[in-house]
Amino acid sequence: MPQGHRVRVIKGTGMELRFMRGWLVGLIVVFVSGTAYADTSEGFRLSQTCAGCHGTAGASPGNTIPILGGQNAKYLADTMRAYQKGEREFYVMNIIAQAFNDAQIGAIADWFSSHSWIDTPTPNKASKAAIGAPIAAAKCVECHGPNGKGGDLGPRISGQPVTYLAKVMAEYKAGSRTNSNALQMIITRDLSDDDIEALAHYYARLR
């Protein structure tokens, strides 16, 4: 752990503790099995802390875990800093983020962002995606772009897992996602559960 950082003890629920144990097991597997990347950069070395959950090069293997490879660097860095400061709360990420200084967070974000987006299996339904398309055009394109690949105002959401997207939107709607900007909360508060599901399928299907 970098010098000068003090880890804040955070109490977690049973589910969070199980998630933490799973993350530690995954991290051990990553280091024991090695990696296919002949990369000696600082960003790569530090990014291996994330590989247990987010996959090598940020290609997430899970339906509730976002893909990081090819994501907007500023968004990634801002999110890590929010976890570090406790402005966004998730037991595992709050602990992990505290291990890095600001320059290291920037290096991790830049490393993931430098990669091309890696599509991972994201099961979705065409019928629900069709319902989500006009909702996305009306509410999402201004920040996330017409193809969902993001930009200065928002992260890439196209190709992310359905379950993850639906979870995030539901949290914005409920006001339970800390470090949320006001615009996201305003946009989602008028969405029905069916709207959220349709949007999640639409963006998971979009490339």
Structural notes for this entry:
This protein folds into two domains: 14-113, Cytochrome c-like domain (Cytochrome Bc1 Complex, Chain D, domain 2); 126-205, Cytochrome Bc1 Complex, Chain D, domain 2 (Orthogonal Bundle). The chain is built from eleven helices and no strands. With 207 residues, it is mainly alpha-helical. The chain is 55% helix and 0% strand.
Structure characteristics:
207 residues; mainly alpha; Cytochrome Bc1 Complex, Chain D, domain 2; 11 helices; 0% strand
Q: What's the overall geometry?
A: globular
Rg from C-alpha positions?
17 Å
The CATH architecture of the largest domain is Orthogonal Bundle
Largest sheet: none
What are the secondary-structure elements, in order, as H or E? HHHHHHHHHHH
- Report the CATH topology name of the largest domain: Cytochrome Bc1 Complex, Chain D, domain 2
* Percentage of residues assigned to helices: 55-70%
- Write out the CATH superfamily name of the largest domain: Cytochrome c-like domain
| N-C termini distance | 38 Å
Count of structural domains: 2
Pick out the low-confidence regions: 25-35
What is the number of helical segments per DSSP (H or I, 4+ residues)? 11
